[in-house]
Structure to design on (1078 residues):
């Protein structure tokens, strides 16, 4: 630093003698002459303006900055703040005002702010020294330094830290020498002196390029916070903005790149508006005294847009409780400068309003692209497209673990690549990177939308772990009954996404849902009038009255299972104590004797906790719990829908259900409807991984094992949480105690503590190349080299193992479909019965010996070689895509046209006060599947209503067998008029498929009593071949548009043009309607 010579407090014309560079605002004075001999120019003069207009083009190469250094801060004779948030707290908080606690200083020069760390004060001391902090400010003409002193209190976050006082130091007329000078000034609060400030100031010139670049004036980017809407509550809101590096761990010690904060705005009309511009970074900004969180305030040019995340937190100003938060990658803001983001709570669930339809709460922000550094990459908005870009738009919705999301990603890639469709995957934010990393398709497009929630984080809680580790069938039934209710909070988000896409060039054509959101999908179909189709990976959850089709597969070797508890025989009690391995019923045990069957009492008790009847009763109670906010009946009522049982509704409406499994995987229940179809197993393959082959260190480990003629076993539990100590205990025992040269590869996360003795044993096995532990691996490449498998029972890993023709054992927590796949493996003779992970250490060596023994004592190896589960290289994507491609064109090809004629012999109704009231204005509502249509109001004359001239009602037909006709009184309040007059059921017989008109006179009933008769005509209409659709005034515009869209469906899927021949025959139409295509 050059501290020789004097510096003018205001810009002076001239050039710097040290570097020869013209720098605005700072020149050294000629020390050989008196300062008065030089003409001093005021900043408002034209000469000053001309000098200030010059700038340094590259501060790194031509660095010369004038900096003000502030050091040696000292606070003397401080008075404790009179901290009273309200007058009535003066007495209660009198003790809290007795002394200072933690004092910090915010120093401001112009627009630059720097805050010191809080300093703990000692009892009885009123002076604080901060000698070890040097504050640096760029000089830009400001000559007044402002210091704000505050006291950080325990209750400060509720009302803000109390103000000790403020001090202003004017150094403009004094600090003209390069040597440090000491300044003192009073500290005052509301005109009352509360202390004295002492500080050391001096000006330095920075000429080192690296330091000059670090201390140069930051050019911030501007972010505008517009508004937040659908807010539940009243009060003032403020928004905190933090920018962090995605590579950093997000915890209390995170150092942010920048921070900013909006003003407080009062919520009015369910929302708050700021339209406030925030600068990032803003030096010295700090808030939220609940924890230490500071920003480095680095210049945006040093940020990495691809690894930078902007977090928004919306807080209630009075209570300092958080309303919600959200975050977005900076790269997405560059792609779409203005976004509307969903707010989440601490559990990552969406925040919704508390009235009406409980719409999700959103925060609108925008990025000023003019302030973005030039070096940042600018991307185009992927959501900008035309109606002709994609022929179909498929909306996929699911929630759960990665195993629940991965098949949908594989299906979406197939639809985009093979058919060129637009596919939107709506799932949890945790899987956003996973979805987008597989969105690189040559045709079509795959998008991501967030629905809220974090299933994996919830599974890591102690309560969830306790439930997952419980082995009883009752707990499994409870988990299965909660499989949908856990995700009801995402219902408004799913519905809002589908509604928002109606404004896009290509609205949603088909909604594909998973098991965990089946009830929400039914609401979307009814409210948004969208066709739906299920993509179900857990077939055991589909209800059936078949006695052999159970919802929960019992684990017969579990110590705490119902079979062990209810087996009262001496042999059963012995099994409960020792818990030996039970072999499949179709095979012989090692002793050559058949396994004894369970007692009748055990069978009846087992049925009570494993049947679909028990699941339906428990599931209905949980989903319609009147004390729960997210009650299925409540949610349906928000959208004006009646109560309904989800799976019964699917059955009546013949909703297509696709199960990605082969036909011979299990015996199909006889009472499943025709829409439930099995296709083929589906996998997410990576072409890059296939081309690269087996990677290190797995490649070397496998090569060494083959060279030593050893047997290889793969152990994996995918995303299921299994303690690492348990896994290492099992793998080490299999390697050491197997009768053959046996080696194990474990693929999974390292979770939990490992005892030192076990850790040393595992280390020795790894050094001997007998055990390998990997975080992740490409199963498609690794499975081909294995001789047996130990898996958790997921669809992907289990079928991948079965396709290799090797013995497979299913173990782990054994949840939901994991028990199903364990039962499939055992009944197919490919391995033992599924066993819980806690009991598997007792049986792991027996499985290892039986799986690799050349004599094949249990016939697992022979059975595995004989059975065919698909080709190793076939991913099943094409088969499933073709199934959906065949389904989509026929959805909505037929419509049920209902013409209401009259309602006669109507009886007057009684209201809740038992007062008879005559009918006046009535309407007829026809409910057909998920859809409903109603007539206009008609006046009731005497006991008859004539509907002559009423346009026909048209409802999409998808194979339903009945329709409901409801006559409603639309005059007056329901307390006085009674909304429903009566209802009737219209049964559709096979004659309907002939597309001929039929007449029906249906009796209307209300509360078991006949109240009249309604007459109507109905027929089935083929929208593809209806020549009169364009001229018939009774057909709605929506129906005409639907017919046009359906014609385009044929052109997209088939290479041949749509036929204009006559309608198909009755037999052909009947086969078509009952096939899965509908």
């Amino acid at each position: 630093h050059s501290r020789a010579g004097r510096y003018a407090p205001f810009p002076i014309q001239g050039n710097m003698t040290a570097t020869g560079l013209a720098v605005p605002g700072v020149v050294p004075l000629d020390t050989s002459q008196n300062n008065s001999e030089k003409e001093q120019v005021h900043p408002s003069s034209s000469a000053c303006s001309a000098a200030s207009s010059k700038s340094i083009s590259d501060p790194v190469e031509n660095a010369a900055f004038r900096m003000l250094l502030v050091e040696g801060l000292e606070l003397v004779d401080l008075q404790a703040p009179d901290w009273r948030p309200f007058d009535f707290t003066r007495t209660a908080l009198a003790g809290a005002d007795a002394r200072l606690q933690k004092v910090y200083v915010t120093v401001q020069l112009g627009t630059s702010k720097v805050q010191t760390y809080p300093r703990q004060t000692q009892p009885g001391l009123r002076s604080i020294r901060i000698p070890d902090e040097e504050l640096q400010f760029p000089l830009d003409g400001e000559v007044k330094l402002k210091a704000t002193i505050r006291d950080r209190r325990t209750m400060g976050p509720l009302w803000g830290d109390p103000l000790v006082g403020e001090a202003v130091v004017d150094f403009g007329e004094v600090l003209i020498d390069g040597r440090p000078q000491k300044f003192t000034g009073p500290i005052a609060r509301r005109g009352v002196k509360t202390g004295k400030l002492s500080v050391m100031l001096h000006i330095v010139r920075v000429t080192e390029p690296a330091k000059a670049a670090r201390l140069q004036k930051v050019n911030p980017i501007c972010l505008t916070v517009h508004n937040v809407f659908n807010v539940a509550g009243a009060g003032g809101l403020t928004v905190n903005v933090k920018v962090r590096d995605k590579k950093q761990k997000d915890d209390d010690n995170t150092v942010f790149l920048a921070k900013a904060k909006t003003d407080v705005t009062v919520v009015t009309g369910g929302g708050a508006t700021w339209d406030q511009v925030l600068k990032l970074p803003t030096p010295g900004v700090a808030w939220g005294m609940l924890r230490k969180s500071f920003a480095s305030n680095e210049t945006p040019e040093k940020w990495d847009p691809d690894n930078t995340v902007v977090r928004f937190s919306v807080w209630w100003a009075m209570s300092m409780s958080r309303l919600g938060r959200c975050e977005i990658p900076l790269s997405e803001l560059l792609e779409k400068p203005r976004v509307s983001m969903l707010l989440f709570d601490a559990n990552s669930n969406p925040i919704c309003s508390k009235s009406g339809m409980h719409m999700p709460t959103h925060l609108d922000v925008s990025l000023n692209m003019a302030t973005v550094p030039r070096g940042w990459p600018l991307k185009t908005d992927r959501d900008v497209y035309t109606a002709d870009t994609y022929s179909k738009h498929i909306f996929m919705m699911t929630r759960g673990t990665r195993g629940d999301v991965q098949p949908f990603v594989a299906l979406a890639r197939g639809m985009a690549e093979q058919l060129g469709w637009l596919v939107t995957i709506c799932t949890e934010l945790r899987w956003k990177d996973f979805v987008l990393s597989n969105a690189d398709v040559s045709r079509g497009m795959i998008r991501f939308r967030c629905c809220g929630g974090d299933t994996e984080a919830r599974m890591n809680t102690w309560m969830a772990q306790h439930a997952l580790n419980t082995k009883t069938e009752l707990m499994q039934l409870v988990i299965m009954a909660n499989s949908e209710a856990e995700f009801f909070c995402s219902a408004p988000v799913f519905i809002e996404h589908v509604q928002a896409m109606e404004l896009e060039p290509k609205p949603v054509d088909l909604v594909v849902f998973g098991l965990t959101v089946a009830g929400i999908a039914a609401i979307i179909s009814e409210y948004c009038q969208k066709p739906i189709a299920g993509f179900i990976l857990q077939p055991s959850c589909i209800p059936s009255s078949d006695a052999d089709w159970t919802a929960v597969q019992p684990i017969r070797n579990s110590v705490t299972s119902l079979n062990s508890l209810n087996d009262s025989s001496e042999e059963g009690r012995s099994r409960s104590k020792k818990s030996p391995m039970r072999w499949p019923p179709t095979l012989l045990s090692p002793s050559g004797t058949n396994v004894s069957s369970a007692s009748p009492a055990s069978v009846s008790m087992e049925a009570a906790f494993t049947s679909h009847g028990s699941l339906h009763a428990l599931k209905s109670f949980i989903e319609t719990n009147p004390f729960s906010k997210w009650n299925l009946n409540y949610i349906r009522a928000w959208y004006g829908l009646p109560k309904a049982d989800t799976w019964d509704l699917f059955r009546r409406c013949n909703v297509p259900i696709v199960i990605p499994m082969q036909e011979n995987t299990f015996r199909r229940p006889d009472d499943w409807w025709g829409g439930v179809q099995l296709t083929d197993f589906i996998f997410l393959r990576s072409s890059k991984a296939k081309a690269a082959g087996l990677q290190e260190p797995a490649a070397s480990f496998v090569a060494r094992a083959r060279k030593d003629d050893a047997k290889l076993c793969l152990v994996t539990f995918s995303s299921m949480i299994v303690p690492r100590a348990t896994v290492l205990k099992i793998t080490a025992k299999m390697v050491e105690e197997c009768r053959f040269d046996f080696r194990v590869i474990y693929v999974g996360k390292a979770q939990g503590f490992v005892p030192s003795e076990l850790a040393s044993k595992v280390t020795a096995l790894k050094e001997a190349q007998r055990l390998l532990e990997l975080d992740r691996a490409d199963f498609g490449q690794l499975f081909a080299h294995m001789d047996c498998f130990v898996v958790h029972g997921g669809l992907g890993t289990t079928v991948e193992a079965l396709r290799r023709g090797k013995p497979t054992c299913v173990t782990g927590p054994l949840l939901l479909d994991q028990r199903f796949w364990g039962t499939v493996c055992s009944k197919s003779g490919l391995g033992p019965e599924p066993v819980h992970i806690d009991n598997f250490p007792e049986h792991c060596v027996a499985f290892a010996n039986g799986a690799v023994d050349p004599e094949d004592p249990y016939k697992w190896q022979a059975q595995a070689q004989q059975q065919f589960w698909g080709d190793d290289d076939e991913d099943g994507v094409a088969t499933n895509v073709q199934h959906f491609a065949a389904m989509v064109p026929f959805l909505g090809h037929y419509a049920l046209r209902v013409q209401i004629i009259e309602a006669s012999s109507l009886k007057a109704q009684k209201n809740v006060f038992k007062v008879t009231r005559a009918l006046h204005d009535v309407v007829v509502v026809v409910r057909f599947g998920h859809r409903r249509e109603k007539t206009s109001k008609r006046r009731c004359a005497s006991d008859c209503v004539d509907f002559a001239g009423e346009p026909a009602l048209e409802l999409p037909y998808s194979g339903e067998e009945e329709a409901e006709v409801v006559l409603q009184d639309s005059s007056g309040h329901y307390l006085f008029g009674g909304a429903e007059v009566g209802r009737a059921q219209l049964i559709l017989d096979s004659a309907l498929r002939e597309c001929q008109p039929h007449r029906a006179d249906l009796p209307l009933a209300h509360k078991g009593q006949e109240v009249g008769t309604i007459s109507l005509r109905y027929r089935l209409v083929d929208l593809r071949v209806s020549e009169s659709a364009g001229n018939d005034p009774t057909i709605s515009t929506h129906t005409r548009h639907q017919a046009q869209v359906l014609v385009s469906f044929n052109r997209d899927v088939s290479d041949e043009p749509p036929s204009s021949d006559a309608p198909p025959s009755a037999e052909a139409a009947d086969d078509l309607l009952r096939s899965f295509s509908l």
